[in-house]
Design a protein that fits this description.
Length: 457
C-alpha cells in the first residue's frame, strides 16, 4: 500500500502543477490583452496637456467598445473624469482603487485572480504628456468564459487523476496479491525443507526476481539433498565398517571364554583381537580427520619441502615395504617448496605410498617422482601393482569405496585413505588424478602450486 500512497502524492502534485500552470497561461494571455487596451487608451490621451471630463468622454467614445467590464479615466489628482458604468458611476469622485493609486505613481499595474467560476483581471497605466503625469486609465474585466474554461480543465484533470489513481490501486492490489501468493509458496517450500524433505522443488513461473530466487532455492535443495544422501551413506558405511572388527572381536573373545584352548591358540586369538583393535583405531583416526576437514575450518599454512617430506615418509614405511618385498624409489630433489596446511603434505604422501605398498605385487616397485612445470610442482606416486579397473576410477576417491573389498580388508584398508587424500589436496588449492600405467599398476598425480621462497617472502 505504500506504492498507492506514493502515487497518490505524485498525482496530487501533478494535478496542482497542471492546474497552476494552466491558470498562469490564462493569466498571461489576459495580461497581454488588457495591457494592450489600457496602453491604447493612454496613448489616445497623450496629446492633451490636461484631461477634462468632456475630452475624456469624447476620446473614449472614439475608441469604441473595448470589451471591458469597467473603464475609469482620472486626472493627476485621482479625480474620476470618465466611468463606463451607467449605474453606481464614480464620476466626479476620487478613485482610491490600489491599481489607480499605483498608476498615478508612474507604474504599470496588472492583477488577475480566479474564483467562483470567473476570471477577474485589472490593469492600470499612467497618462503622460511630455513626460509629465496628467492622469491614469484603469480597466477591469470579469471573464466568465475564461473562468468556465479554467473550471472545466481543472475538473478534467481531477477526473483523470481519480481514474489513474483507481487504476493504480487496482493494479497494486492485483500485483500485491500475485506477489503475496508467490511469497506464500516460497515460505511454504521453506517450511517443507525445514522439516527435512530436501526432494521438494519450488515451482514458480516467470522470469522475475522471485523466479530466479526459486531456481536458486531449488539448486540449494538439490545440494542439501545430495549432502543428506552422502551423510546417510557415510553413517551407514561407517557403521558397517566399524561393526565388522567389533563383530570379529566379539566372536574371538567368546571363543576364548567358551572353549578350552591351549596357550598357543589363545595367543593367536588375542593377537587377532589386537589387530582388529588396531584396525578400529586407524579407522577412528581417519573418520576424525574427515570430520575436521568437513568442518571447513581454515588452518595455518607453512612452507614445506616435498623432497624432505618424501624422505621422511619413505623411511617410516621402509619396514612395511621390506616385509612385502617392495622396492622404494625416491626420484625427488630438495628445494621443491610449497605452502601447505600443517601435516597435510605428510598425510597425503603417507597414504599414497602406503596404498602403493599394500596393493603392489610381491617383489614390485613403488616410485615417487617430482618435476617442475611452470608455476607448479608435479608429484607422482606410481606402483607395479594389480592396477585399478577403468570403471572404478571415477569412484576411487569416494568414502568407503573399495575396488576389491576382500583384498582391501585383508590388507587392513578402511576405504577412507584416498578420500582423505582427495579432501586434503583440494583444501590446499591443489589437484589430484589417477591413471593406469601402460606397463601395469597405477599412477597418482598431485599438482601443487609452487612457493618460491626467494620471490614470495
Amino acid at each position: 500500500m505504500m506504492y498507492v500512497g506514493i502515487t497518490s502524492v505524485v498525482l496530487i502534485f501533478l494535478n496542482l502543477y497542471a492546474a497552476t500552470t494552466m491558470r498562469n497561461l490564462v493569466f498571461r494571455s489576459k495580461e497581454t490583452s488588457l495591457e494592450d487596451k489600457v496602453q491604447m487608451a493612454a496613448s489616445a490621451f497623450s496629446g492633451l496637456r490636461t484631461i477634462q471630463e468632456e475630452s475624456a468622454e469624447k476620446i473614449m467614445d472614439q475608441l469604441g467598445n473595448l470589451n471591458a467590464t469597467r473603464v475609469l479615466v482620472t486626472d493627476a489628482s485621482g479625480l474620476v473624469l470618465y466611468d463606463s458604468l451607467d449605474e453606481d458611476a464614480a464620476l466626479g469622485q476620487y478613485a482610491v482603487l490600489p491599481e489607480i493609486v499605483q498608476a498615478l505613481g508612474g507604474n504599470d499595474v496588472f492583477y488577475s485572480s480566479y474564483g467562483a467560476g470567473r476570471l477577474e483581471s485589472k490593469a492600470a497605466t499612467p497618462i503622460l504628456y511630455a513626460g509629465s503625469l496628467i492622469g491614469a486609465v484603469y480597466m477591469m474585466e470579469y471573464d466568465l468564459d475564461q473562468g468556465a474554461l479554467i473550471a472545466a480543465l481543472q475538473q478534467n484533470i481531477l477526473w483523470i487523476s481519480v481514474v489513474l489513481e483507481g487504476a493504480v490501486i487496482l493494479f497494486s492490489l492485483f500485483f500485491s496479491e500475485a506477489f503475496s501468493r508467490r511469497m506464500r509458496q516460497i515460505f511454504a517450500s521453506i517450511r517443507i525443507i525445514r522439516e527435512g524433505d530436501y526432494s521438494h522443488k519450488m515451482q514458480l513461473r516467470g522470469h522475475d526476481e522471485l523466479a530466479v530466487l526459486s531456481s536458486e532455492f531449488n539448486a540449494l535443495t538439490e545440494r542439501l539433498q545430495t549432502s543428506e544422501q552422502r551423510r546417510r551413506q557415510f553413517v551407514s558405511d561407517a557403521s558397517h565398517e566399524l561393526k565388522t572388527p567389533l563383530t570379529s572381536i566379539k566372536l574371538l573373545s567368546d571363543s576364548i571364554l567358551q572353549n578350552d584352548m591351549d596357550t598357543g591358540t589363545i595367543r593367536e586369538f588375542v593377537e587377532d583381537i589386537g589387530n582388529e583393535a588396531d584396525r578400529l583405531t586407524r579407522m577412528s583416526q581417519k573418520l576424525l580427520s574427515l570430520t575436521k576437514m568437513d568442518a571447513g575450518k581454515e588452518a595455518d599454512r607453512e612452507v614445506a619441502d616435498i623432497a624432505e617430506t618424501t624422505d621422511h615418509v619413505l623411511r617410516m614405511l621402509a619396514p612395511v615395504a621390506r616385509l612385502n618385498g617392495i622396492t622404494l624409489e625416491n626420484c625427488t630433489s630438495p628445494g621443491a617448496t610449497i605452502l601447505m596446511i600443517e601435516d597435510d603434505l605428510y598425510q597425503i604422501l603417507f597414504n599414497l605410498v602406503e596404498n602403493g605398498i599394500k596393493y603392489n605385487r610381491p617383489g614390485g616397485t613403488l616410485t615417487v617422482d617430482l618435476e617442475r612445470q611452470g608455476d607448479d610442482w608435479i608429484l607422482s606416486v606410481s606402483d607395479t601393482g594389480v592396477g585399478i579397473p577403468p570403471e572404478a576410477i571415477p569412484y576411487i576417491f569416494d568414502r568407503f569405496y573399495r575396488v576389491d573389498k576382500a583384498r582391501s580388508r585383508q590388507a587392513g584398508g578402511s576405504g577412507l585413505g584416498l578420500s582423505i587424500v582427495h579432501d586434503m589436496v583440494l583444501r590446499n588449492d591443489s589437484t589430484i588424478s589417477v591413471a593406469p600405467r601402460p606397463e601395469g599398476g597405477t599412477c597418482f598425480t598431485v599438482v601443487f602450486p609452487a612457493f618460491d621462497i626467494e620471490e614470495d617472502i
